Amino acid sequence: MASVDDRTVRDAVQKAVDVELLRVAYGGAFLSRPVFLDHAQQEGLGRDLAGVFRLLTSLPGLVTDGDLGRYCELVGMTPSQAAAVRRTAGAPPVPLGRADLYHDGEGFRLLEFNISSALGGFENAEINRALRDVPAIADFTERERLRHVDTLGEIVRVMLDTHSAPFWGDRPFVALVDTPASFPGLERRLGFMAELLSAYGVDAVACHTGQIEARDGRLYVGDRPVDIVYRFFIIEDLLEETGELELIDPILRCHENGGVTVFAPLDTEMYGNKRALALLGDERVRQSLSAEDLALVDRFVPWTRRVRRGEVEVGGAYVDLEAYCVENRADLVLKPSLLHGGMGFAAGWLMSEAEWRSALDDAMRSPFVVQRRVAPGPETFTDGDVTGPSVLNWGVFMAGDRYAGAIVRGVADPDVGVVSMGSGARVGGCFHGPDPSAAL
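The line above is the sequence of Glutathionylspermidine synthase pre-ATP-grasp-like domain-containing protein; the predicted structure tokens follow.
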């Protein structure tokens, strides 16, 4: 669509997305055009993410013989976090997540897989709907038969599938629940989400854990009984010093007793953290994988390992991990296992040797992973008065076992450590092409 990626289209795009819901979510920072996947890419992403999800959710059985306490410790959780996770475990893992990927010019590479209900970007279909108000984009998408997935609709489908009990009222009542500490910054965004959910036959309210009351085996927000707690609080919130463990106890107790459904349960945090992804490179795990699964991991997941003392496999040989990291600083990143949003991220190519050694030494004492850098291939966008390359972080959703839409973040600096809103990224929507075998 380069032919219509000019200043006229850019201005029309900025006008189209200038609505309160999207301003609240993304602060008015948008790319000058959407991005596109062909049918094979869309189908391939859905297939690959479903495959990695299957592998990640098999890890407790492979590495700790199903002992969830030991597995939680292995991926870096505290004992109290692990105890909270075990209280919601038991049912099949909820197949919902958003992958962060780079495209390196040859294919997509999976940097992280956020398996959770607390996913940013759920408004992406609203971006696409707004973009279709731009004549040039509307004409192009119609001519090429491009579509987009309603990601929020897919999330609702998975959410309702996890709830087996009758609803307390005529429509499901969902509490969108965050922590008291972070709720003020997210309240308006969750309020818009509650409004959007109404179109799917769901009543919802935005609140925090301190606003939920347990009575008679049920949870209430005000006078209304809650059917589903849509969880926006995450494992890193559950620390003794925050008091959050005490606040979520009534929620977990009600979930255990069948009085409410927690969506997604806290056990998803076992699979969606960075150390879980690193375990796919563990030799014990690799020896148990089929040839097809090994090929998927080697093609789709960049080299990722737990940071620890000792030897590690690199390219078929075993080397000392610390020495390897020091020697290959420019090609590596350090990431904390359980934090999000780029917190604790260290890019070796942006640091001096002394800074990198210090970061590596700290990582040796904490649950961290080291990952080989992926250099994303650039795409062309217009930013201000300049048309030039930007690198993209593709946020691709999986719901069930299929592709469920995407949102991208882009920055002009190819050497940026993290492509995120914190690093000045702009946001864009994503359309995908039709099945070539389908009738016109």
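Note on the example: The mean pLDDT is 93. Residues 307-372 form a domain with the Dna Ligase; domain 1 fold (CATH 3.30.1490).
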